[in-house]
Amino acid sequence: MLFPGGIEATANGVLIFSAAAAALYLIIVNQRPTPLRSVVKTMAVGFLAALSFIEGGPVLLFAALLLSAVGDAFLSRDGEAMFLGGLASFLAAHLAYVGLFLGRGGGIARLSDDGWRIGVAAAIAVAALVVMALVWRRVRPTLALPMLAYTLAAVAMSVAALTLDRPWLVIGAVMFLASDALLATERFLLSAVSPHRAWLRQLVWILYYVAQATITLSILL
User: Fold this and answer.
1) Would the pLDDT of 196 be above 80?
2) pLDDT tens, 69-115?
C-alpha cells in the first residue's frame, strides 16, 4: 500500500476506489452518455481530490483535482455548452496547477539551470502550436478563442512542472498535455465514422487518469 495503515486505511481505500472507477470508465467510455456513466467518470478524479483532502495536501492540489472532476462531469455529456463548461473547468484546474508548481518549485528561472528543461519546454510549445494550428481550422468561431486560452493554460501547467525536481510529476504533467492533444484530435480532426475513435478515447482516458494520479501521488508522497 502507498499510504500507512494497510488496505483498511482510509487513504489507501480512497485510492483503490479511484482506480476502480477509472478502470470501470475505461470499459464504458465508448457507450452513449448516461447519468451513471457521468458519475463513474467524475468519481475517478473526484476520489483523488478526496485523497488530497484526507492527506492534508496543498489547497491548490485539492482545487485542481476538484475542478478537474467538475470538468469530467461536463465532458461526459454531449453538446457545445457542456464542452465549454468542461473547457472552463479544466482551464481553471491548469491555472491551479501552475500556482502549485511554481510555488513549490524554483521559479521560472529554474528552467535555465538545465538544458533538458529548456528542450522539453520548447518541445511542449512546438507540439501545442502544431495541434492548435490543425484544430483551429476545424472548430466553430465560438470555440476558437476559448480553446486558445485553454491551450495556453495547459502549456503553462506543463512548463511550470519543469521548475520542480520531481521527474514523475513532470511525466504526469506531460501525459496530461498529451491527453489534451489526443482529445482535440479525436473530437475535431477525425471523421464522425472513423474506426479510430473508440481506441483513441480509451487512450485519452488512460493518459489523463494516470497523469492526474501521478501528479497527486508525487505531491502527497
Assistant:
1) yes
2) 999 999 999 998 999 999 999 999 999 999 999 998 777 777 877 78
In order of 29, 33, 41, 91, 106, the CA distances from 77 in angstroms are: 12, 6, 11, 18, 39
The SS3 call for residue 1 is coil
Residue-wise pLDDT tens digits, 157-184: 999 999 999 999 999 999 999 999 999 9
Rg value, the chain, Cα:
17
What three-state secondary structure class fits 139?
Answer: coil
Instruction: Determine contact, residues 151/139, Cβ cutoff 8 Å.
Output: no
pTM beyond 0.90: yes
Nearest to 63 by CA among 34, 100, 115: 100
Buried b (16+ CB within 10 A) or exposed e, 56-85: ebbebbbbbbbbbbbbbbbbbbeeeebbeb
DSSP 51: H
User: Is the distance from CB of 214 to CB of 45 less than 8 angstroms?
Assistant: no
> How distant is the alpha carbon of residue 124 from its chain centre?
15
* DSSP letter (8 states) at residue 138: T
Residue labelled with grid coordinates 500507512: 4
d(CA 203, CA 205): 5
Question: Could you please report the per-residue DSSP string of 170-216?
Answer: HHHHHHHHHHHHHHHIIIIIS-TT-TTHHHHHHHHHHHHHHHHHHHH
